[in-house]
Known about the structure:
The chain is of the alpha+beta class. The chain folds into two domains: 38-93 and 251-467, paralog of FGE (formylglycine-generating enzyme) (Alpha-Beta Complex); 105-234, no CATH class. Helices cover 26% and strands 12% of the residues. The radius of gyration is 28 Å and the shape is globular. Mean pLDDT is 84; it is low at 18-23 and 151-155. This is Gliding motility lipoprotein GldK.
Amino acid sequence: MRKVLLLLLATATLASCKSSKKGKAGKPGVQGEIVATQQSQKWNNKKPYGMVPIPGGAFVLGQADMDFSGSVGKAPLTTVTVSAFYMDDTEVTNAEYREFIKYVKDSIARTRLAERADQEGEEGIGRYAFLNKKSESEQNAYQQMLEERGGREGYDESKKLDWSVPLEWRTANYPDVAYAEVMESMYYPPEERFNNERVIDPRKLIYQFTWIDQLEAVKKKGRGESFLKREEIAIYPDTTVWLRDFNYSFNEPLFEQYFWHKAYSKYPVVGVTWDQARAFCAYSTKSKNDYNQSRKKKIEKVFPYRLPSEVEWEYAARGGLENASYPWGGPYLIDDRGCYLANFKPKRGDYMEGEKGFLYTAPVKSFQKNGFGLYDMAGNVSEWTVSAFNNSSYIISSTLNPYLGNRIEDPRKVIKGGSWKDIGYMLMVSERDWEHKDSARSYIGFRRVQTIPEGSNVKFPKIKKLQ
C-alpha cells in the first residue's frame, strides 16, 4: 500500500513539473495576463489559379519618356507607391466568361423550377424543390425562423438550391409538363425565333449581387441598409459590337461566332461593359467563397476579386522596368529578329503584324510576357479599370495607392493598354484613354486583381528584365 502511495505521489510531482515547464501564465484567463490565443505567424495566402503575384513598390507614374500630345491628362510626373496584389496573367477569355453565363443560366432555371415545385409539388419537377422542402424534419432553429419570416431581403437561405440534381436540357428527357413549361420560358418565344431554332434568351440572364459603399458610409459616419447596394446586371456580351464598331466592313462571321465558337475559346472576351466586368468579379468571389465553405475544414473568405485601379494596371504593365515605354521596355515594337511584340495595327490600313500576324484579336499568350509574368499588357484588347477618368487625377490623388474613390456614378472609366485596332503609340503603358461605362466595344476586355494583405506568406517571382 505504501509503495502504491509513493508511486502516485511521484507521478503527481512529475506531472506538476512538466506543467510548470510549459507555464500557465501565458494562457488567457490565467493570472490575469492578456495573451493572444492565436500564434503570431505569416498567413499562407494561396495563389489564385491563373494569377501572378505583383510585389508592392514605388514607380514614376505617367509619361516619363515622351509625350507627343502634351495634354494635361498626362502630366505632371509623380512618384507613387502601390501595394501588392494578384493579377490575371491574361485577359479574361471567352471560355472563362462562358462559365459565368452557364452558372447564371443554370441558377435561374433551377430557381424557376424550385418555385414551380413549391407551388405544385409534382413528382417529376419535385426533384428540383428547394433543399429545405426536401428535409423539413432536419431543419435547425435558424432555418425554421427564416421560413416563418418568409426569408430575408436579399439572399434567402430558406431558398437554397439543390445543385446535386442534374438539369435536363434535352426536350426528350423532360420529366413532366410542368418542367417543360419552366424550361421553355428560358428560350426566345416562337415569334422571335430565327428558322424556329430554340436559343436561350440572353435577356433572361440577369446576375444579382450586393456590395457595400464603404467610402460613402465613412463620409456620412453611418452604417445600414442605405449603404448596401444591390445590383442586377444583364451579363450576356453584346456580340453586335463587331457590326456597330465598323461601318462598311464585313464582320458578320465574328458577330455570329466569336463568343460561342470553340475556335475562339482562348480569345479575350469583348463586348462587355464596365458593369458586366464588375459582375464577373463578384461572381468569381462568390464562387471561391462557396467552395471554401463547402469543404469539411472551413477556409477563410477570400479577398474580393475586382477590377484594377488605373495606377495598379500601369504599375503591373511596366513589369518592374523604370521609365519604359512598353511592357517589354522599348522604344521599339519589334524584337531583334524583326518580330512584332504585340497585337496592334502597325501601319495605316494594315492590321497584320507580319506574315503570322492577327487580323483582329489574338489568342491569349500569343506574345511574350512582361517581367511580372503578365501577357498582353499592350495590344490585343484595351482593358477596363475601376478608375473614373479625370484629367487632374494625377494631381489630386494620393501618392499612396492613388485612387479617386468608387465613383460608380461617373460615366467615364479609364481603359488602358491599347488594342488590336490601335497604332503603336496607344500601346504605351502610360497612355490613358476612357470609355463610357455602359458602352461595349469589340476592342475592350478586362482582367481581375485581388489584394494581397500585408504579412502574407507569398513568394514573389524574380523580375525578368527584358530590356
